[in-house]
Each structure stands twice: as C-alpha cells, then as structure tokens.
Design brief:
Number of domains: 1
Radius of gyration: 19 Å
Order of helices and strands: HEEEHEEEEEE
Strand content: 35-45%
C-alpha cells in the first residue's frame, strides 16, 4: 500500500513537472517569434521568394521543445551529434545562434539570442565570433499573472 502511494506521488509529480516545463517553453517560443520578426526588420529578407530562411540554433538544455518553423524561418537544431556534419555541409562556415536562459530583474524578463559567426577548424575545433545580438524583453503583468512581450533590442559591437 505504501509503495503504491509513493509510486502515485512520483507519477503525479513527474507529469506536473513536464506540464510546467512545456508551459515554460512558451515564453521561449514567443521570444523566438519576436527574434525572427526582428531579423526581417534588420534586412535579413529572403534573397529569393522560394528560398527558405534558416536559423541554426544550438539546442538549449533548458528548453524541451522548439518549433521546426516559425514566421517562415526553418529552425535547425545544432546538437553534439550533428554539429560537425552541419558545419561540413556548409563548408565549415555557419551562423551558429545561441539562445540564453531567461533572466529576471525588477519584474522584467530578458531572453537573448546571439548569432555567432561559426567556423569549423581542424577536426572538432570550432571558433565562434560575435558581433551582434538581440534581447527580447517581457514585463510581468499582474492582472494576467504572467510575463507579456514588451520590446526587442538589437545590439552590436
């Protein structure tokens, strides 16, 4: 009897934890949506109408799922397993985008995207250079009891 209660509690906590995680992914999806819109306003339009825009995003370990397409951008996840092949498929050069964990200061949440200029050197040695990035801001709405999109700030060196 006691073991079945423990098992029930474990299953319940596991499913609650997964539900919270998937709910937590929504703010990252919104940030990714706003990031793609900011890319379009910064001049990263399609060269050809039928050519798919692609973001090569390093798979963050703090997000469970990322949509494969958002606002017309195809999202290719870079993992330890496919990183070398992905770079080789692009002649060793790639815009390697990283998504950083949310940070909260004074009821304002920030999620940053940094598109590095990646280069595959010898074997598995990678060089990442940074020149710009984007921060997506969210403000806490006490009526909705959640963070809502506030603004986008692009920065450069």
């Amino acid at each position: 009897m006691k073991s079945s209660i423990v098992l029930f509690a474990f299953v319940l906590l596991s499913s609650l934890s997964k539900a919270q995680t998937k709910e937590g992914d929504k703010i990252y999806w919104t940030a990714l949506e706003k990031y793609t819109l900011s890319l379009d306003t910064m001049g990263f339009k399609k060269a050809e109408e039928d050519k798919v825009k692609t973001i090569y995003l390093e798979k963050p370990d703090f997000v469970d799922s990322i949509p494969s397409v958002i606002n017309g951008y195809k999202i290719i996840l870079i993992t330890n397993e496919n990183q070398r092949k992905t770079y080789k498929d692009h002649k060793g050069l790639l815009t390697h985008t990283k998504l950083f964990p949310i940070s909260v200061h004074d009821n304002v949440a920030e999620i940053s995207f940094v598109p590095y200029r990646g280069r595959l050197k010898k074997r598995n040695h990678y060089m990442l250079s940074v020149s710009d990035g984007t921060i997506i801001y969210f403000k806490f709405d006490s009526n909705k009891n959640q963070f809502v999109f506030s603004k986008v700030k692009n920065w450069g060196i």
